Amino acid sequence: MALTMKIRHVDTLANGVLRFRRRFPKEVAENLGQGFLQVHIRNREGIAFQSEYQAIMAEFDRIVSDTRGKLGERDPRPLMTRWHEALMTANDLVRAPVAASREEDTASLVDGAKIFPQQPLNVPSVADNAPSLSEAVEKYRTVKRMSKNDSIRLDRTASRLAEAIGDLGKIKLTELRREHGQRFLDHLLSRKTKAGKPMAVGSVEKEITIARAMVNRAALEMDVEGFRNPFEKLELPKHQVAAVDAKLPLSDDHVAFVKGSLQEADSEDLRRAWTILAGTGARLGEIAGLTLADIDLVAHTPCIHIRPNSVRGLKTTSSVRSVPLVGEALGAAQGLVSLSDGKKTTAVFPRYAKERGADKMSAALMKHLRKTTKDKRFSVHGLRHALQDRLRLAGAPSEVYRGILGHSQTGIAESTYGSAQARMKVAAEWMVKAGV
Which helix (H) or strand (E) holds 304? Predict the structure, then answer.
């Protein structure tokens, strides 16, 4: 029967490599900027292993002792413990990769409370191998397989982080402290928009979220252990406006005014887009990237299929849905189909079916909306709120309008009605009742 023994601070990694990992005392860790001494052990068994293990242990103690010395602290270990360690070193019982001299006089090892200086272990420290923040940014971009838009947002956050804490290429992940997180937060709160106003709290929160996710993922992917994320649990100012009042539904007058303004401006594409947005409650990006294949006029209930296509993806998996076309929205969709070239992959709004095309469509529509209201709580997104209000007031069950709008609770609708055709029919009936 084989006898196995657990060696302190040594574990075996998934690839079979032995790893030494020992936590530094708190005050030492804070001074070094790293929580652990971690190194792979080259020798796996026998005297060679024991010698290497003892050398690493000795190096750990040397680092702790030297660091405490710099802090003006006396090594707290008993004198006999320190004397014994020095004696072991002098007799080469603790063998470092750089061999200690055997000619040292053991009588000179103990001088009061001083210890014979040990040979430094020739292994890299955790901090030396830790990635920089600029490397963390690139690792996060690669792992997340970011789109152009997401990559631009990441670069913006990284740029603002550098403004707050310094060159990201010179700061290692293991050197991050809570102070860095607070400095980033303070920097964001002090920033001004082009209009000279402070950044919205929601925008600050998004920047913090990106920074937090970036360093967390990089630390995971790059095997940085003992890492504490300084962007966790930062205290943001309370929102001054309740979330329910942050965006308001557009009134019938708003909708009619924009439609008339688009007609006068001879913006047929934008007028049709506005009409479909108002009649389906779809997100602006979902309509800007619509293709001919997504418009189904031959189904039992005419509809648009909102799903990932060759032009754009979707916000969430619950966003995948089919929305009935009724009233003016149906007429606008029929007009788009009649003007198309018949190719299913053709974007019905080619001017906006591109990177950041939804932003361009939003800006174009907002110019007309701002002619009737300057209140920033009103935006194109208010069409979704308006449709939801119409359906609520008409008495539609919540699973109906959640299914139409693509909310996360769409699963409720899926389990309530038996078939897609039945669900579509019921949804269309409620939309007609709501006067859509």
Answer: strand 303-306
Contact indicator for 246, 377 with CB cutoff of 8 Å: yes
SS3 42: coil
Question: Two tokens at 283?
Answer: 């997100």
Nearest to 272 by CA among 361, 389, 381, 379: 361
How is residue 295 written in tokens? Answer: 């418009």
pLDDT tens for 151-169 read 888 999 999 999 999 999 8
Count Cα atoms within 13 angstroms, Cβ side, for 71: 18
Q: Positive or negative, the Cα torsion across 255, 260, 264, 267?
A: positive
Buried b (16+ CB within 10 A) or exposed e, 74-105: ebeeeeeebeebbeebbeeebbbeeebeeeee
For the packed helices 133-143 and 148-165, what is the interaxial angle rounded to 10 degrees?
Answer: 160
> 5: helix, coil or strand?
coil
Taking the C-alpha atoms of residue 379 and residue 373, their distance in angstroms, rounded to an integer, is 10
3-state secondary structure of 233: coil
**Which segment of 81-90, 185-194, 201-210 scores lowest on mean pLDDT?**
81-90
Q: Which of 349, 346, 318, 345 is nearest to 332 (CA)?
A: 349
Structure tokens at 204: 């600050």
d(CA 7, CA 18): 11
Would you say how long the chain is, in residues? Answer: 436
Closest CA to 215 of 174, 179, 255, 187: 174
Q: Rg for the chain (alpha carbons), in Å?
A: 32
The pLDDT score that the predictor gives to residue 33 is 79
